[in-house]
Amino acid sequence: MRYPAIAVALVTMLALAGCQSMAEKTDRPESLYLQLGERSGIASIVEDLLYLIVEDERINEQFSGVDVRQFHSNLTDQLCELSGGPCTYSGREMRESHADMNVTDTQFNALAENLILAMEQNNIPTGAQNRLIKRLVPLYPQIRNL
Ligand code: HEM
User: Fold this and answer.
1) Mind giving me the DSSP string for 85-97?
2) What is the CATH number of the domain that holds 80?
3) Which residues span the domain enclosing 78?
4) Count of domains for the chain
5) Which residues line ligand 1 (CB under 6 A)?
6) Atom of ligand 1 at shortest distance to CA of 110?
7) Would you state the pLDDT for residue 42?
8) What is the C-alpha to C-alpha distance for residues 25 and 49, in angstroms, rounded to an integer?
9) How confident is the model at residue 28 (pLDDT cuts 50, 70, 90)?
10) What global pTM score does this model have?
11) How far apart are CA 22 and CA 27, in angstroms?
């Protein structure tokens, strides 16, 4: 299975940063959630991500007509749960919600890039950014509908 370049690069960076994360004892499941600023911090990251998506011509057309409130709430819950927080994602399965979109590698990378930018804007440490991206990599085949 082929993974997008950004995912491969980030996982490699993660491997290289392994010593650092061990030193910080950030492998505990709940610590990523805390580093992201708990649910309110994640909600703020997702809000900034939405502004970036609207400005990004590689992906904004896909989002026309989307219920922004619902998307914001569901994505926040999903990232909260994935980061080890006390949330339950109650939206649709990734394969189902992206089924008819024909999401390309370029678009997947664009969204990941915007998420990283949004985390930068919220002063999330690089190690925590990488850990969240790593947890999103398994969703790649579902979102690409492979
Ligand atoms: C890591 C990558 C991604 C994650 C974690 C993700 C996550 C999500 C989540 C949680 C939802 C809400 C599902 C629901 O409400 O039931 C959603 C919906 C959606 N996603 Fe993604 N997504 C990703 C990539 C993409 C990409 C690359 C595109 C297009 C360029 C995209 C376009 C959409 C659209 C348009 C919706 C709204 C669907 C609807 O309301 O009918 N997503 N995504």
Assistant:
1) -S----S--HHHH
2) 1.10.490.10
3) 5-143
4) 1
5) 59, 62-63, 66, 70-71, 74-75, 78, 91-92, 97-98, 101, 103, 107-108, 111-112, 136, 139, 143
6) 27
7) 99
8) 28
9) low
10) 0.87
11) 7
